[in-house]
């Protein structure tokens, strides 16, 4: 199907919100895209990319692996979790704790010198989740990096003929959520020669809500 327009996506978000029962927690909006001609042998179906969204996801929790001043800067900038070299080394002998660290946060950043250690200790848990950390550039502003992480949606196609990604929270306006969805769809569509054929139904839903489908 053709990539939905902003107006169509906004209407779908409105419907998803209206048809969802009130919950005692803040729900997230999810975009689910079906790929009717999925073929894992083709490179266009092996997308693993980060999409910069127009509007940040406030609930995104960023974990940072760093030491010394850089770690202190990350904590001041609002990182949900930080860990240094000694704690990482200790995790090597505690797989349960390592798995918990890998599943507890949405986005990970690491100092380049810690990347090999992170890969060795947490790679088996972060890798399958598509959450391997991005390296922190030299002299980078941690506040800007964390803010950018909160505006990043990671799209990962694996072995299933669909993908899903978080595009907002209940406190975002309908239009803002729709603009985030459109940013993801446009970025994914660039990898296909004919997005109108390769992208099937587009679904928008809240965490515990009824799916709203924009089908062909």
Task: Please outline what is shown here.
The protein has 216 residues and is an alpha/beta fold. Helices cover 37% and strands 21% of the residues.
Identify the notable features of this structure and list them briefly.
216 residues; alpha/beta; Ribulose 1,5 Bisphosphate Carboxylase/Oxygenase; 2 domains; 4-stranded parallel β-sheet; globular
Find the structural class using helix and strand composition: alpha/beta
Helix content: 25-40%
Mean pLDDT: 92
Q: Which sequence of strands runs across the widest sheet?
A: 8-1-9-10
Alpha-carbon distance between the two ends: 5 Å
Number of strands: 10
CATH superfamily of the largest domain: Ribosomal protein L1/L10, rRNA-binding domain
CATH architecture classification of the largest domain:
2-Layer Sandwich
Q: Name the overall outline.
A: globular
Give the CATH level 1 class of the largest domain: Alpha Beta
